[in-house]
Amino acid sequence: GTNPGVDHVPWPAEVAARYRASGHWRGQTFGAWLTALTAAYADRTAVVGERDGNPVRWTFAELDERAHRIAAGLVGRGIRAGDRVVVQLPNVPEFVPAVFGLWRAGAWPVFALPAHRHSELRHFAAQSEAVAILTVDQHERHDHAATARAVAGDVASVREVLVVGSPEFDDLAATAPRELPDPDPAGVAFLQLSGGSTGLPKLIPRTHDDYLYSVRESARICALRPDSVYLAALPVSHNYPLSSPGILGALHAGAATVLAPRPDADTAFRLIESEGVTITGVVPPLAAAWVQAAGRTERDLSTLEVLLVGGAKCGRELAERIGPALGCRLQQVFGMAEGLVCYTRLDDPDEIVLSTQGRPISLDDEIRVVDPDNPSASSADVVAPGEVGALLTRGPYTIRGYYRAAEHNATAFTPDGFYRTGDLVRCAPSGHVEVVGRAKEQINRGGEKVAAEEVENHLMAHPAVLDAAVVAVPDEYLGERTCAYVVPAAGSTPTAAELRRFVRERGVAAFKVPDLVEVVAAFPVTGVGKTSKRELRAALAALAEKG
Ligand code: J2J
């Protein structure tokens, strides 16, 4: 089982008491929340999607009943409160009742992305000691069920693979509902994934109390109302389309969520027109593609009121084109699965919306901008107002530690509980945050996060590779791409194509396969006789920048 205080770091009792007293934490679970929403919005549409090319449309009452049945079915299959279940689902309507079913059963979803492959899923399952994997059969020509079964074969804790759309799952989802004990709202509700910077991605424990606070506030800040229609264009298990304001924000407002099976402009524009979508969220490269496509579409996009853009920096030029091209308001969002989410407000002056990534959700989000050259700067080492520094944060929905990661937590958090985001920011007197760079060893590939060390480790598993360093190189479309510098083992001459194939075949998400591979005779020596990976990456990144 899981051990509170050891596996995950709770907020200090007096801080938790403060968040409760101020009404941020309400002592409500996801299951109880859906029950309350269903009482208020029973016959309104909650979820719209497609299954095998056929439209699916569920009201709140139908969603609620499905979630109850799935919960009962899961319990019938031996899933118990506190069990972890890896969820790897694309944007299918079943995602919503299945996740609420898990919550009602007291189980913790571990949210994998559809792009993840064997190596990542095995890590999530092993790290969380998951008892089951919930996935689909085929998606985008990948056999997810087969990958999940292979992972189940590798990780002893995994007892079963549940496949949405299979007759077995349909049976499970037809189980008679039953009364189940409500889990502890202050306890962990699910594990979200970190973008990662070291080794393998860390797991992020989020509680019912803290997450629902961020969801309610996100729905308010994005002005969702019962007749709003939210399009989930990005993969829904990611924190952004889940909660900023996302599917959950839409549910909170009594609004409908439309799940787009793919995020391309053709699919999105078709759904915006047919469902009257009023708000959606994308990453900058997708916003750029939509802006381009808007010039030649015959689709009616006039219902669209707000386009959120975030996950990576939205440049000024792109920001300026969004409103005119799509006929909607831009809302910038700077968030992280660890917690803190900043939004520009819908009534902010244009200049703020175009040039900043917004301000925090909560007045109780504490922001410290500290000495950027000192990786262990404490929350007291703040830079002068308006100067660039490393962003630290703590607050009512920002974690105090990763799951089962005591050693990593010692450096990822300050002793007084601030999370080191790894982002370099400048803070305006108004509290608006501008993201100007990054201190963490991560590549932000158009919103998809790649940990340099994780890819280096895959490369170094190749017998012809002596050493590898992965850095970001500027890219017109994605903002950044990955470049792997590789020093071959004595006598070896690996090719770029061979190394890229090797990484792919180790079973990793396609977005982690290095875009460029440069085989070099040796790395520049950065220190006196000693090469630090951090300094080496900085030197190589500078080299790549010059081209
Ligand atoms: C620059 N960098 C950004 C932005 C995120 C909403 C929106 C995004 C995420 C997300 C999220 C950025 N400009 N506007 O969880 O709820 C980079 C930063 C940050 C990291 C977090 C949400 N928006 N970033 O992207 O956990 O480097 O969450 O620390 O995937 O993305 O990545 P992730």
UniProtKB/TrEMBL annotation:
Domain of life: Bacteria
Gene3D superfamilies, A to Z: 3.30.300.30, 3.40.50.980, Luciferase, Domain 3
Matching SUPFAM superfamilies: Acetyl-CoA synthetase-like (SSF56801)
Top EC group: transferase
Name assigned to this protein: 2,3-dihydroxybenzoate-AMP ligase
Lineage of source species: Bacteria, Bacillati, Actinomycetota, Actinomycetes, Pseudonocardiales
Limits of the AMP-dependent synthetase/ligase domain: 39-403
UniProt keyword terms in alphabetical order: Ligase, Nucleotidyltransferase, Transferase
Keyword Nucleotidyltransferase: yes
Cross-referenced InterPro entries: AMP-bd_C, AMP-bd_C_sf, AMP-binding_CS, AMP-dep_synth/lig_dom, ATP-dep_AMP-bd_enzyme
GO molecular function, one term: acid-thiol ligase activity
The keyword Cell wall biogenesis/degradation belongs to this UniProt entry's keyword annotation: no
